[in-house]
Amino acid sequence: MRSPLAEQLIDCSLMKHDRFWPETAPEVAEAAVAGLDRYGSVVFKIGMLRLDGDASQRLAYRIAGELRDELIRSGAPKEMRLEIDVAQESPLPHGSSQPASYLTPSVLDQPDWDPAWRTFPGCTAHTMYQGIFSADPGEALSATTYYDWLRILHDVKAARFMGNDNAPSTASWLGDNLGRAVRTGRAPSLAYPTLGLTETALLAAPLLRCGRPVAAELKDRFPLLRTLSTTCPCRDCGGEVTRVFCNLASLTIGLTWPQFRSRYEVQVPVERFDLLIAHNLTTLRGCWGRVVEPLRLVLDTPSGPEYEAWLSRAWRRLDA
After folding, report:
1. Residue 35 in contact with residue 10, Cβ under 8 Å?
2. What is the three-class DSSP state of 258?
3. Would you place residue 89 in the very low, low, confident or very high pLDDT band (cuts 50, 70, 90)?
4. Using CA atoms, how far apart are residues 141 and 293, in angstroms rounded to an integer?
5. Has residue 1 been placed in a domain?
């Protein structure tokens, strides 16, 4: 497990007094865009300002709006907008708004990819960036956990094609897996369609709340889950959902859940009222024992020249 780098921690002291926001907000947002492009996530250290809850929330909303504008100036689609959700508890590694928002190839890198495969009927808007305002950090150490989805995909693909001189790019391999799920008609119900697994029980089970049992109806539908929720490779996971997730991690990347966390997890300690923003398609996130208020930068239609260029740039972080 690692900690965020100094460049990911955004100083918000210039914005403590709202009368200076017109001059200071663009400067703070510009620093955040650089961190997002390089690392995939940033933390706005609002809590250090010691403002009250209402003032901190107002500042978080202003920062999110200014960040939207700066991202658009940097090339994100002009139609991207800010959405603010209700407070909620949060879970195991996931992206926001699945299955409406997941990483795909850009047609600039894989011309045969069909943008229509990015959305399914009845899905919500496509989340490009996910933010969480730490309304209640909970007890003891409050940490949001991030996982670099690009690195995970790269490592799984490398393991699958070890010794193969004709291995596809990570984006192409991911696109092939997603395309296979779409063509078989299974994609709308899949929570994890992207790492090459074919067992529907592992792909369709929504593994989000680590302390909860697997729903009885899921066990009835997929008897395999009954076995996987009983034991796991590390034999140390507590809770049925966590044990299934441990089995899934072992099958996809050859790591137990504790080993997966050790290799990929970045723990971001947060104070009350800090604002965390991450690239929703190239990172996964989880939280432990806290209440957060989600903020999202979303797009109704994830296609078109601006989106494809933005997505292609996101993939370049894998080569940095």
Report:
1. yes
2. helix
3. low
4. 18
5. no
